[in-house]
Design a protein that fits this description.
Layout (H helix, E strand, L loop, with lengths): L33 H31 L9 H26 L4 H7 L1 H34 L3 H11 L3 H18 L1 H4 L4 H26 L7 H32 L1 E10 L2 E7 L13 E6 L9 E10 L8 E7 L3 H5 L8 E8 L11 E7 L3 H10 L7 E7 L8 H11 L2 E6 L20 H4 L6 E6 L2 H13 L7 E4 L4
Parallel strand pairs: 7-8, 7-10, 8-9, 10-11
Antiparallel strand pairs: 1-2, 1-6, 2-5, 3-4, 3-6, 4-5
The structure holds flavin-adenine dinucleotide.
Flavin-adenine dinucleotide binds next to strand 4, strand 5, helix 10 and helix 11.
């Protein structure tokens, strides 16, 4: 059934006949999601505590092992600060590795995107601390031997066993951080950045020998020995398990195979896959997997795509299936339109908290634009709410751009959600540029009067989503109620 365009706020499409809109201003701070929300906030706090505690521990253990006892003059003080900078820098590197390890605890608390955002933020401080470590030690040792820092660095490189490996490690860290800077990263294909990024593991590995032989970190009987061993072994095992073993197990367990590719609009298509035990993946509407289609020329590219439908596993479906919907935003995604039925698929995931796991309230608002509408469709299908407790706002330049719009309309009817189609050219008003011009002076609150008491899910182009987020905040929605899935990196 074709839905009508919205002429002005207040005109709703897709509601169940006789379905009343949710009353405005109702507060539901208690409810079935309250405990889940408290647990998630607690986990987030625990992560913050663990992060600071690890940094404090790295420094405190050096003190506990008598680090300060060697400081009696300026030369020794410079050397000591250099050692502390190295310990703090290495600790941050391990935290970065753990944030990228896709630990379920981290993913479930803050989501994959926020974990990676924090991972990125630690990059520069970690590098600066490691550079300070090298410079201060070269200065401190040089002062002790009457050499300038450059001559001392050359002497360290040539005379001290394993030290040249520390220099190689530093060069690798610099390469990783520099290629990760946004301006530099955009110049290179994603795969180039990714493979340079893998050098971090090599950088950590080649830094290890000088910590044994020169640093005394692993000296018998010290507390530091156990702390650093735990970090090395713990991070290595977490990475091996969650980044390698789990994806291999999930791929083998679900045996996904492309069933068909369904075109939706120019450059937009759904990929349906069948597989085994897909019931285990139910309830992940809105979350994403990293997909690798094992066909010639495609297998080496891994794409993050969100589910656009909950896995179909009921008795009515002859073969369990799941679905993603893709817009060809680059050469790799465009090639997926030509996938042949029967192509095997490797998966990693599910990841992210763009799902019911992030719910904190009974009311829910879903705002999507372009291809960002498609994960909202899966979320709408699965997330719990009563009639009148959900509002869906879809933005596109035309009705044809409201991908899966007909399915969403049907779901809204079935579940009693309020649906707005926001189509047409952008509003000229900078405050409400995320809305179409036809919305006039309307604001988010005009569409969702009780938005301050709702979880708000937003997915769409980044500039558009930023405007929606800003307006939601202006409307009084708190940070913890806002859930945003980014499709860019
Ligand atoms: C969490 C998440 C969910 C997404 N869900 C959807 C969806 O449901 N539908 C949809 O159409 N698009 C989605 N995207 C965007 C989609 O992943 C990219 O548009 C697509 O991978 C681009 O690949 P490309 O080869 O065509 O483009 P290019 O820009 O040429 O990308 C080249 C390589 O970069 C990789 N790449 C590109 N963007 C990313 C990224 N953000 N993270 C990691 N690797 C990346 C690609 O997989 C590919 O290997 C999502 C992105 C993210 C981060």
């Amino acid at each position: 059934m074709k839905s009508q365009l919205l002429a002005s706020p207040g005109q709703r499409v897709g509601m169940s006949p006789g379905q009343p809109p949710a009353p405005a201003g109702r507060k539901s701070t208690k409810g079935r999601f309250a405990a889940q929300h408290r647990r998630r906030m607690f986990r987030t706090d625990m992560l913050t505590v663990a992060l600071w505690a690890s940094l404090a521990a790295a420094l405190a253990l050096w003190l506990a092992d008598g680090g300060m006892s060697s400081v009696g003059n300026l030369t020794q003080a410079v050397t000591a600060v250099g050692i502390l900078a190295g310990l703090a820098g290495m600790d941050l590197v391990f935290l970065m590795l753990l944030l990228a390890a896709r630990l379920p605890f981290v993913d479930g608390a803050v989501g994959h995107d926020r974990a990676l955002e924090f991972h990125r933020k630690l990059g520069k401080p970690a590098l600066y601390l490691l550079l300070a470590h090298g410079l201060l030690l070269a200065t401190g040792y040089g002062m002790a031997e009457g050499l300038n820092p450059v001559s001392e660095a050359v002497a360290l490189w040539t005379l001290v066993p394993d030290m040249w490996l520390a220099f190689v490690s530093m060069a690798l860290f610099i390469a990783v951080v520099v290629t990760s800077l946004v301006a530099v990263r955009r110049r290179f294909p994603y795969e180039f950045w990714y493979f340079v990024h893998l050098l971090t593991y090599l950088a950590v590995a080649v830094a290890l020998p000088h910590q044994f032989s020169v640093g005394g970190l692993f000296a018998e009987g010290t507390w530091q020995r156990w702390y650093w061993l735990l970090l090395y072994i713990g991070s290595g095992s977490a990475l091996a398990w969650f980044r390698i073993a789990q994806p291999v197990i999930a791929t083998y367990r679900h045996q996904l195979t492309v069933r068909r590719v369904v075109p939706l609009a120019p450059g937009v298509f759904s990929i349906e896959m069948s597989g085994l035990r897909l019931n285990e993946l139910s309830g992940n509407g809105g979350r994403f997997f990293v997909w690798r289609f094992l066909a010639p020329g495609m297998w080496w590219q891994a794409h993050p795509f969100s589910l656009s439908a909950e896995p179909q596993v009921g008795k009515s479906s002859r073969q369990p299936t799941l679905r993603i919907t893709v817009r060809n935003l680059g050469a790799g995604s465009a090639r997926l339109a030509s996938l042949k039925p029967g192509t095997k698929v490797a998966i990693e995931g599910p990841y992210g908290v763009f799902s019911s796991a992030a719910r904190s309230r009974e009311h829910v608002v879903m705002i999507g634009a372009g291809i960002g509408i498609t994960p909202l469709r899966a979320l709408l299908e699965s997330t719990p709410f009563g009639p009148g407790q959900a509002t869906v706002l879809l933005r596109g330049s035309s009705t044809e751009e409201l991908f899966l719009g007909d399915e969403i309309l049907e779901l809204c009817r079935k579940r009693g959600a309020t649906l707005f189609h926001l189509t047409g050219p952008r509003s000229a008003n900078p405050q409400s540029a995320w809305l179409p011009a036809s919305a006039g002076t309307s604001q988010l609150r005009d569409f969702v009067p009780d938005i301050t008491d709702a979880d708000v899910y937003i997915c769409g182009p980044s500039a558009w989503a930023r405007q929606v987020l800003a307006e939601a905040k202006r409307s009084g929605v708190r940070e913890e109620q806002l859930h945003y899935e980014r499709f860019d990196w």
